[in-house]
Amino acid sequence: MPAMRRVLLVAGVLLLTLLASACSSSGGSGNVSRAQGVRELQQTRLSIDRTLDLIKNGQAEQAFAEAKNGYLSHFENVEIPLRVADASLTVKAETTFAEIRQMISGGDSVNDIRDRIIDLRGLMDDAERKLTDAGVGAPMVVMTQSFLILFREGFEVVLLLSVMLGYLEAAKSTRYVKPILVGVGLAAVATVLTVFLMPVLFSILPINREVLEAITALIAVAVLFYVSFWLIQRLEQKRWLKAEWRPSETGREAKFYSLTRAGEKQLALEKETWDRLTAAVDLIFNEGG
User: Fold this and answer.
1) Using one digit for the tens of pLDDT, what is the confidence trace for 121-147?
2) Residues in CB range of 131: below 8 A, 6 or more apart
3) Which end of the chain is more exposed for a tag (fewer CB within 10 A), N or C?
4) Does 226 fall in a domain?
5) What is the C-alpha separation between 103 and 107, in angstroms, rounded?
6) Cross-strand partners of 242
7) Is 31 helix (H, G, I), strand (E, B) or coil?
8) Residue of 2, 12, 4 lying closest to 154 (CA atoms)
9) Dist CA 10 CA 215 (whole Å)
């Protein structure tokens, strides 16, 4: 069965890619080891001490800049392995850093800021104990979680592709199979390249991981909207869909879409094809049971 072979090939490629990604992403806790985290922690301590000295000398602006730089340049690297060892401690340290910066910018007294910095020093000591505590439990938990998430998402993709390829076979539209398989192959290559290129990208760009993730999410949303409107435009061009402006529930003019007669006929045809496909899938599962 050509369709089944293609599905198995796609499933194999995706699962191997996801396995490689899971191992790579969990192997180094975000490419920052515990030993590197401890070294960055020492630099964080020095930055905290410089911040306190600047505050005592009345240099609030320089103290704020030093506190911000110490967090962004050093403690953010500590967060990567520390989040694995103790997520709550990581959040507490982040909050304390933010409170100190807010106190400096708000003009709080030196004594209040000093007391908060002493609390932060204690958190840094706790963080060092967490990072120097030997054990394999945390890395194994991270690897297992990463693999399960990627495997689950990959399995969903395999099921979706199986349905798509089966539908195209049933609808006699096999000309679309090749572009889908090419897209899957390109996605697998892009996944592997991303695993190796992201650390290099983070070292080059003057932004942190959270900002880059936010930019990527915005791009994904923009692509989703573009594809949605492109699909609607295609349906209108085929005269399967029509649009009209009329008042909405709020009283403002809005664009409403509805199926044309041709669209209803096409929907009935697609539904018939889908019913045949689902019946075939049910037959396979029932025979297997």
Assistant:
1) 999 999 988 888 755 555 565 566 667
2) 34, 37, 38, 41, 78, 81, 82, 85
3) C
4) no
5) 6
6) 258
7) coil
8) 12
9) 30
